[in-house]
Amino acid sequence: MGKRKFKTEVNRLLHLIIHSLYSHPEIFLRELISNASDALDRLKYLTLIDDDFKGFAFIPKIEIRFDGNNKSFISVTDTGIGMNGDELEKELGTIASSGTRHFMDSISGDVKLDSNLIGQFGIGFYSSFMVADTVDVISKKAGENKAYRWHSNGKGMYEISETEQKMNGTTVTLNLNETGKQFANRWQIEQIIKKYSNHIAFPIYLHYEDKRFEGEGEKRKETREPKVEQINSASALWKRLKSELTDEDYNEFYRTISHDTEDPLHTMHTHAEGNLEYTTLFYIPKKAPFDLFHFNYQPGVKLYVKRVFITDDEKELLPTYLRFIQGIIDSEDLPLNISREMLQQNKILSGIRTTAVKKILGELEKMAKNTPDKYETFYKEFGIPIKEGLYQDFSNRENLLELVRFKSSTEKGFTNLHSYKERMHSDQKAIYYITGEKEQNLRSSPLLEAYNEKGIEVLIMDDEIDEIVVPAIGKYKDVELKAVNRSSTSEDIKTEKDKKDEKEIKPLIKKIKDILGDEVKDVRASTRLSDSPSCIVMDENDPTLQMQHLFKAMGQKNLPEIKPILEINPRHEIVKKLQNTDDKEMAEDISRLLFEQALLVEGGEVKNPSLFAGRLNRIIAKALM
Fold it and tell me: Is the CB of residue 546 less than 8 Å from the CB of residue 603?
């Protein structure tokens, strides 16, 4: 099969790993053991569901050997599914997945943080080159006759050739460099495995020489006895009783399945018996995964049946909005040979999923109530997915409504809908909110002026998703949610004085309508302004400017033109002087400027910037006369 070149991005990746991430090299062993465990999981599954493998002699184990004298090598062997020549090329020669690109995009410059990313991006094997001058992989796929050897020094080339190996499985041998020699001893290997891999569900055996000295004086001599010792617990941690487990047990297991080096923010462990018998062990990370908002995100939950690994790539195990959850579902009732298509329609799994979601949301409610600081930490990372649930999961919408948080025009930090409702004025008709791109822009929007003046709280919603989600909520406990950038909300705060001002300004409104023509849907007297001369709002059934921007960002370029409503402030000095001017050119310039400045404040665009600048210059010139 001969020598091959790594692809360009693989060369970049290897150069980065070898030259930049050496300060955290011990993770190589974690990654190799994790890969070995995956290979064993896959073969175990085949021996249970595939007729071709049911008589297969499967003895699952991972073995580690090292040269304790010369510190020349460390090897990791598994008796798993193995790889043929084509698979070695695909898995080790090309890095065909998108993990490489995302890894490169996520590099921060912090060596420790960047090294922690390796496992998360599915490129853990290449961490071997932090500690090795060359790496050899010998593998024989279960059920096939030929074995193959992959060899590389990580400097642009790799070689694949046929070789000899009796047993199925894979052996990775690292020919150690100066950095790697420190790990070629029993104590180091045991410590790394206890730190990262203690709860791998298959036995990990360490081969070593037990050195002893016998006799005294000149007769004293060293003896070496080969020994093999299992150095991990090799038990399904999630099946053990909670009372038997410590926080560190849970945290070690989390680090194993998530490749995270931090402890989880929260742990949820449930044993269910009755109509359905299953175990779930779920974790909430402290930080959002890199692919949280990617369409092809990697699910964090693994499915087992009677402790047999089934899949870690099934997005139906939990709803999409809970995709940040890491952990295990282990069912006693599902068939071992269940297919992906059957999973999506299976009533047993549907029942587990329903109960699991309620458990997760219940835990979040407890966290929000009992440890609000911890919940705020959670919400800053995962608040947007929780909001997604409001339109994805109607059956749990009431629970989710208690979990969402928003900023406020009157309160510091985050607040929730329940607290807002308790603070409402006795005569207040709705829960008011404003959506847009930047918090500071929203807080200074003219649309809030009357609400601030009257002491009415407005929720500040600066996530893009708010524009989609919140209008769909409709009501919270029979109280309507209303956007302050909608025309109808002006009626809620209209006073008798506003009605009087509205009558007095009718001639000016007609004049401005005639000037602006079909550029606006309507011109009205505003009840929501106190300091600003004008603002724009949208009709009740029209998309807001922010929503129109979202449509365009999603590729919908041929949208019909949506015209805003211009509101003018009857009590503002500019409006009063405009009402009394006989200068037609000035009246037209000011009318258009009132509209265009209101557009700009709300994130809109003026159609012709040159004409806008010309109008502005004429007004400035007249003001300086």
Answer: yes
